[in-house]
Every structure is written in structure tokens, then in C-alpha cells.
Amino acid sequence: YNVEEEGGCDDLDQGDNGWKIIHTDVFRFPPFKSLLCAVLGVGAQFLTLATAIIVMALLGMFNIHRHGAINSAAIVLYALTSCVSGYVSCSFYTQINGQRWVWNIILTSALFSAPLFLTWSVVNSVHWWSGSTQALPATTVLLLLGAWVLVGFPLTVIGGIVGKNRAGSFQAPCRTRNIARQIPPQPWYKHTFVHMAIGGFLPFSAISVELYYIFATVWGREHYTLYGILLCVFAILLSVGACISVALTYFLLSGEDYRWWWRSVLSTGSTGLFIFVYSVFYYRNRSSMSGLVQSSEFFGYSLLTALVFSLMLGSVSFWASLAFIRYIYRSLKMD
């Protein structure tokens, strides 16, 4: 305020602009903490499950002529890895000063299992109504429900309790002010939808070729055997998602916008939307499916697949962005 109008105003605080000037707001905890932590926990669970499935297939533990073997292994691993989602979710929820940790465990447990049960109920009801042999009998339904009640949910609770007790501090390099800083108007290319389009398309382009063979195996009569290539593509997918998330987060912070928490999840998590759009393209142009039974099953499970990718990539991109932000602001504090 003491600088004269004629001199030196443009040089005032020349070094404190962009991402440096919001160092007192960048670690301000976001809204909907419980939902964010549940997304991170379930995403970590699916990351563990997908890696285990690919490694088991690479070791030759599945018969290529029996698709049901992978499905059975996925169901068992989903129940056993529920402790991962509970631990990650409740641990981070405690770090960001969450208080309703019981509700957080319930939300984590139901975030994917509730859409899965709803989708399966609709698809199976269509099968029963049409008299299809693909409908699961009541005994199988009770067996799967018992596996979740007796194994999946208790492991989520146990993992959540362990994560809550072992959670440390958030380790923010910078102190957060009580009053939030005003965010300046952002250009159109820094809006959420633009970042979601960029952050979703690039990871999808890395797996688009492999998706065709996977869809042809699941919904066609092909046999997939290139699990080594699948592991490489999976690693490329995670790497591209993490790098894109870091770049988009840096662009966001450069515009003095500190609302990166949910943006980092949505930017790369939008890959699931592209996968669902591809499934629509595959249904119309690459498959010969038709009718209510086949359509309901295809689109129902395609929606679940898109949700899995969104949760998994959203979790990876968030942790990558968090590590990047901690690194740059720790360096700023040292200077």
C-alpha cells in the first residue's frame, strides 16, 4: 500500500504468485470428507484386486476355456480385500479430522456393493422374467449374500478400526488460515468438465486397443491369453493417469484455485465414462447382441465396469496429486 503509483507496483510480490500464493489454503480439507475417503478406500481395494487377478492369470492359475474361474476368484478376492478399503478409507478420514468414522465404514462398504446388488437384481429379474438359463438360483444368491455379510463387511469393519487406530497426522507442510482466500475467475480451459475430458481421454487411449480383446473375450467367443501384455498395459494406464492428474493439478494451482481434492479424483476418474461410451460403440458396431435380456446384462455390467475404473483411477490420481503437492510446498517451506 505504501508503494507509489508510478514506480515498482508491477514488481510487488513478484515471487508470490500462482501456486505459491495459496500455500495457506491448499491443504484446506474438502467438503464431503466421508465420501471422498470411501472413494479412495474402494479404489485402493480394486487396485489390489485387479493386480492380484492379473498376476494370478499370468502365473497360469486360470483355465482359458473357463471364464467362470476368473469370476469366482474375483468374488473371493473382493470379499478378502475389503479390509484394504476399510483401512485406507478410515485412516485417511481420521487424518483429515473426520468425526463420524462409523458412518464412513458403512459408506465404504456400500459404495460398490450397493450398486452391484442393484444392478444384479435388475439383470437377474429380467432373466427370471424371460425364463433364461442365465438366471442365478436362489441358493447361489444366498451364498453370495452370506459371503458379503460374513466375510466382506466384517473385514471392512476390522480394517477401518485398524486404520483409525494407526492413523497419524495429515503432515501438511503449510499452515492453513481460518479464512479462505477468494478464488479468482478461471478461464474455460480450467473448468472441471474440460479437465475431466482431458484426464479421461488420455488414459482411455492407452487401453483402447486392449479393451477390444477384453470385450471380445467376455462377450464373445474369443480366448484371451496375453496376460503379460495386459499387465504392461495396466501399468501404463496407472502411470498415465497419475502423470495427467499431477499436470492438471499444477495447472489448477497455477490459477490460484486450491480446490484440487475432488478435481484430482474426477479428472482421471472420468475414464470410466469413456469406457462406457466405448461399450455402447461395441454393442452397436462390434457385437450381434439384441433383445431385452442381452441388452440389460451387457449395459448393466458395463456400468459396473466403468464404476470400477472410475474408483480405481480416481484413487491413483488423488494419491499422485497429494504426493506432488506435498513435495512442492515442502520445498517452498524450505526456501
From TrEMBL:
KW Membrane (keyword) present: yes
Compartments in which it is found: Cytoplasmic vesicle, Autophagosome membrane
Entry keyword set: Membrane, Signal, Transmembrane, Transmembrane helix
Topology with respect to the bilayer: Multi-pass membrane protein
Pfam families given in the database record: EMP70
Ion transport is among the record's keywords: no
Listed InterPro entries: EMP70
Domain of life where this protein originates: Eukaryota
Residues passing through the membrane, by range: 35-62, 68-89, 101-123, 135-162, 193-215, 227-253, 260-283, 303-329
Protein's job: Plays an essential role in autophagy.
Protein family (similarity comment): Belongs to the nonaspanin (TM9SF) (TC 9.A.2) family.
Name of the protein described by the UniProt record: Transmembrane 9 superfamily member
Biological source species: Ataeniobius toweri
